[in-house]
Amino acid sequence: MDEEYDVVVLGTGLTECILSGLLSKEGKKVLHMDRNDYYGGDSASLNLTQLYRKFRPGQEPPSELGRDRDYAVDLVPKFIIASGELTQILVHTDVTRYLEFKQIAGSFVYREGKISKVPSTEMEAVKSPLMGLFEKRRAKKFFEFLQNWKDEDPATHQGINLDKDSMKTVYEKFGLEPGTQDFIGHAMALYLDDDYITKPARATYSRIVLYTSSMARYGKSPYIYPLYGLGELPQSFARLSAIYGGTYMLDKPIDEIVTDSQGKFVGVRSGNETVKAKQVIGDPSYFGAGKQTEGKIRVVEEGKVVRAICVLKHPIPDTDDSDSCQIIIPQNQVGRRNDIYIAMVSSTHNVCAKGVHIAIVSTIVETDKPELEIAPGLKLLGPIHDKFVSISSVFTPTTTGHDDNVFITRSYDATSHFETVVEDVQDVWKRVTGKDLVLEKKEVEVQA
């Protein structure tokens, strides 16, 4: 391998594949390598054989689950917010031509022992059991305030400064009950914990507006999902990279990140071959993930996420027989610091055999008994046919890459959507290229 590349990308997770596609489109010479023989890294979708090989080596998948090729089971449960940043990237790059999307049928929230639908229309809001009659009036005033807000028109501010006043102040102004605050902060603004309440309200305002505009775009829920699983996303960006001259090598062990006498990156060694490049981008697992490499710790552990992939032979009870849904269990409802998420998809998304539903329950680990922490979520699923539990570390880079040309992405967090993945893409893009990532806005087509 004598030729030199502008960038070597290690790992085919979604973050890495988006960056590889965008850099190739910019005219960079990109080589993309992965030690796995499949695309997606930690964000892959596996068939039955791969799923059992990963979680139960040596055990054959049971024949009653159907054909191998009917399955594409996500390792990381995330949905795409219809008006979110990932949608903008998909549209901006034209990657949508390789993908088909289907809507997620409903978004639900757990409150006082029951599952209730997050209202998607004013009519549903009026009928919703989530609030009493007077609270509905207060909530209506709160949402009208958000909808009517114009930065340049103080008359719409009602004495509130979004950049200075905390979300707590805003909730108190409208007299919203703790249960309503829970529902707004966790089921709409999609915060994992309650830290946001004491911070300026601007970020929460933006998140709620994103949620409601996504909800309005296709109705039913604010989420869309690619047919054949999330693993289709990295593969589509890999295709984009290939169109613009990017080279891909799967099943390629990465034995060494090669640096010069100043500690700057110069290449990657695989076996007895070394490829030269100016910069390297990769997921934390290629950079010692917490271990010391070349005398420096490049990656630290931020926490752990527990996920249980559950195979069901029925839809989740109390979700109107939805073929797909998200259920959020706000932390206050179960005495935790972090929310518990349930994401369910089914054969209508071409990710499992007919009559099967795949539900993934996940949360941030808080104790030394992670599986017990997702018990409240597992309890809502009804009888579980089979279950695969994983505990993953969330790694974050300690260096910017400016000193050594090593640019490390973050692990997938516990959020139920891809907005933080896009934040990471934007951050790494700026570190690698020195400029902001600018996207054009268009629409995405979705199957009803």
Describe the structure.
By secondary structure, the chain is an alpha+beta fold. Among the domains are: 4-57 and 226-300 and 395-433, FAD/NAD(P)-binding domain, CATH 3.50.50; 119-220, Guanine Nucleotide Dissociation Inhibitor, domain 1, CATH 1.10.405. It has twelve helices and 21 strands. It has helices at residues 14-25, 48-55, 85-92, 122-127, 133-148, 167-173, 178-188, 202-218, 232-243, 370-373, 375-379, 419-433; strands at 4-10, 30-33, 45-46, 73-74, 80-81, 101-103, 106-111, 114-117, 223-226, 247-249, 256-259, 265-270, 273-282, 292-293, 296-297, 299-312, 325-329, 340-346, 357-364, 386-397, 406-408. The strands form five sheets. Strands 1, 2, 10, 11, 12, 13 and 21 form a seven-stranded mixed β-sheet that branches. The protein has a seven-stranded mixed β-sheet with strand order 8-7-17-18-19-16-20. Helix 1 (14-25) packs parallel to helix 9 (232-243). The longest helix has 17 residues, at 202-218.
Element layout with pairings:
Elements: E1 4-10, H1 14-25, E2 30-33, E3 45-46, H2 48-55, E4 73-74, E5 80-81, H3 85-92, E6 101-103, E7 106-111, E8 114-117, H4 122-127, H5 133-148, H6 167-173, H7 178-188, H8 202-218, E9 223-226, H9 232-243, E10 247-249, E11 256-259, E12 265-270, E13 273-282, E14 292-293, E15 296-297, E16 299-312, E17 325-329, E18 340-346, E19 357-364, H10 370-373, H11 375-379, E20 386-397, E21 406-408, H12 419-433
Parallel strand pairs: 1-2, 1-13, 2-10, 7-17, 13-21
Antiparallel strand pairs: 3-4, 5-9, 6-9, 7-8, 11-12, 12-13, 14-15, 16-19, 16-20, 17-18, 18-19
Helix pairs in contact: 1-9, 1-12
